[in-house]
Amino acid sequence: MLNHEIDYQIFGEEMQYVEVELDPQETAIAEAGSFMMMEEGISMETIFGDGSQQQSSIMGKLFSAGKRLLVGESLFMTAYTNVGVGKKRVSFASPYPGKIIPLDLARLGGRVICQKDAFLCAAKGVSVGIEFQKRLGTGLFGGEGFIMEKLEGDGMAFVHAGGHVLERHLVPGEMLKVDTGCIVGFTGNVHYDIQFVGGIKNTLFGGEGVFFATLRGPGTVWIQTLPISRLAGRILQYGTGKRKEEGSILGGLGNLLDGDGY
Fold this sequence. Notes:
Elements: E1 7-11, E2 17-22, E3 27-30, E4 35-38, E5 42-48, H1 58-69, E6 76-82, E7 88-93, E8 98-104, E9 111-115, E10 119-123, E11 127-131, H2 136-140, E12 148-152, E13 156-162, E14 165-170, E15 175-178, E16 183-187, E17 191-196, H3 200-205, E18 211-216, E19 219-224, H4 228-240, H5 252-257
């Protein structure tokens, strides 16, 4: 691998950002919209794909970048290169409240599977692509969407998770059942699948969806408490609906008393 060896520091509690330190000619790559600030001496360049396919043919580059469209990402990324003298720093911010998870791919088997909107930034040379599903049903019925991204290489990558993050180490054969939206990522040796939640009560009235993911060890998984889909859904509910759950005994009068008319 030809991953750049970047240093980093994470700041903040609920709204974190990661500061990446670049030696001369070192490069970090990031999704559009994650940039926060940088020092003088760092150049920005839009690149096709993730920058890990420099030696590939044009068809190879098109195929690699095109796969990113399947997970809702742009064909292009931004490369930040230290073209100055001495160390320079560039920072990338979290898009919503949660935690930034540093992933040393060299120590994690060279491959991590993550949610399609979790990737924040990485050392140049880390490959960011799509994880093809083993079953057709996985991609079609995975709750918030179980089409995953894969990060491959031996450098540092950073992903973002919502709310609190649990890192769980699974022993061989140990299985964890998780809401699909609560999965941030897992190492490449973890076996994953989608299972149907049986029972008419769960299907019609459970409120948690009818599918969940199964993760079987050995390997490491990262779980988030606040998927962005839940946060967005709750904001939409409060912004467009009548809040019947507030002051449920008073009903409409409760909304009137706290300043909400009809």
